[in-house]
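We now fix the convention by which a protein and its fold are recorded. The integers have meaning only within a learned vocabulary of local backbone shapes. A record is reproduced here so that you can trace the correspondence yourselves:
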Amino acid sequence: MADLKQLEFFLLRYVPDAVKGEFVNIGLLMREPNGGEGRFSGMRMTEDWSRVRCIDPEADLDVLTGIGMQLQRELQELEDWNLLVRKVEDLFSNAIQVSPVKACLAEDPVKEAEILARLYLQTARRTGKVVASGRQVIVRLMESAMASAGVLKLLQREIPVAEYTKKKGDPLRFDFAYPLGDEVRFLHAVSLKTSVQQGLGLGARFPGIARDIREASHATAKLTVVVDDELDRAEQEIGFVLGLMAENRIGVAAVSEMPRIAAEVRGELRA
């Protein structure tokens, strides 16, 4: 596998009313801080202005689009990242604000910027079609949270369940794992917005997997499933899957809880 690159990014937020503090993400800037002469820097602006219209029907979209073009030029010419942030804040009088800098790891910065732009800058649309990137987006955010907490390199990755079940051809791989005392703790991304079948299959299988792990290694398996934010838990299928997981002692956390989870992992591993 190619080496992962340490990246940093921040979001540009349109804040039409500083008193209310409501905002919409309209841009994403990313850089590779330690990449030498060939280091990556790039910018993405939203192509979906409907969310801006929702909080400010009078927003001048031509001006906002022009801001993106201006910042793109600044990014090509400016070496000082902190100076760029200050210029954004000074130029636009708090109508455009900058989020705290976030860290992430990726093999390909360009692809990572595209993934994060889709996540932060586009409006999610629920359809009957499978969204192929749903689980991958959650995994990326899990990676970023673990990297920010300094524990990503301490975790096992893509652990084949077949190592424990001894069933050849078993395709299931848990995303992350780490031992803790007489336990092995797994973290796995499941997008219930994409398909409840992901969660249904895992929820039904985990008791047997935990039994196989106990028999093979005399360790107790603990699983936390990380799911999409803002799930409609009143939806019958989603409610059923979450109930099945609770019955089978599977922890469930929203992806927005990953900073807290990563901090807990850091404390457990004393990283």
Q: What stands out?
A: The mean pLDDT is 83. The beta strands are 5-14, 24-31, 41-45, 96-98, 102-106, 156-160, 173-180, 183-189, 220-227, 251-254. The first strand starts at residue 5 and ends at 14.
